[in-house]
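It would be a great kindness if you could assist me with a short task in structural biology. The full record is reproduced below for your convenience:
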Amino acid sequence: MFDSITEAIEREKQIKAGSRQKKISLIQTSNPLFRDLYDGNGRGFTYIEVLLTLAILAVLFVPTMQLFSHAMEATRTSRDLMTAVSLVRWEMERVKNIGVSVERLKAAGNVVWPQETEEPVSLNGREWRIYRILKEGSAPLEVTVEVRAEKETKPMARLVTQLADTSWSQEQQVSQ
């Protein structure tokens, strides 16, 4: 072995410059029987072995890709459900804290936000609409909030609550 690359290159040039007989005698001093210096058994892979390996990998690749596809779909569905639940909770909190009477809610009627004439809310790569539906004739007033992805008829999330006026007017306080 050599201590530097320049020494190794210099020695290689000396060997190349020598005659064929000098090169053979140099080999015979370190390897007189001309044994193969490869450590292993010297056997490589056959064409059949390579093809068989590729076939096994291909058979394993298909289910792995299907599993990956299912995982991506489950992630998307989970993300959509979390978005829908957040939106339905947000709207329900707005309904409960809006500070209007049940009569005013009834007068407003069913509400779609954003309205059908406007662009839907875009969150997490999907478009959403929030529907507030009042149940006629219910006492206390039953309010349903649904969240639907755009172009879907089935709601992704739904909450239902009942509202009643709890504030006292001055007339009610006087009569008691």
Summary: DSSP finds five helices and five strands in the chain. Residues 83-165 form one domain. The beta strands are 111-113, 121-123, 126-135, 141-149, 157-163.
